[in-house]
Amino acid sequence: MPKTTSISRSRKGPCFVWNRARMLIAFHRDPARKKRAKPYLWPPKNGAAALHHDVRDQEVFVDLRGVDRADDVQLKLRSHAIVARRDPGQGWSGVEINDHQVRVLVDDIWIEIHADGTVVRETADSKTFLEGDGSIIKTSEDADVMVSADSSEITRRTPDRIDAVTADGILSKPRQAIAGPRTDS
Known about the structure:
Layout: E1 9-10, E2 13-14, E3 18-29, E4 35-42, E5 58-66, E6 73-77, E7 82-85, E8 92-97, E9 101-106, E10 109-114, E11 119-122, E12 126-130, E13 136-140, E14 144-147, E15 154-157, E16 161-166, E17 169-174, H1 175-179
């Protein structure tokens, strides 16, 4: 069997996604430290570059050109993370990898995988947690929902109600009834 560097193969042979890679340094400020309208791109001659802490001044990236230009990817090399970006519309449009988590941006939804195994899905109006033990918590403006890892307990809290299903039974009450009557002095 012939050796190939491709991860996936079709029946006709290797499947290639990218055909060119180029390292560039983007200088976002001119020598007088004024912000440029468009960054000055410079390919380092020795293929090495220092990673600056403030990417607003200077950043290093690898530009991967796809066989089909729609597949182009930009790998940003930062002192605290590696970030992959591409145009939206093809599934993921961003990936960030650091010491504590991997984050993926898919259709304006961030999905994070933390070092402890927790998975977080965040949209503009809600956040869902899949904890390392298997329990699920979803928070939104309207309600908070929790399902235990073994599905034996389910709770839902809204601004005015609390509902729970446990091994002891079912509870569904207005929140004020649970807290008791108010005694304003």
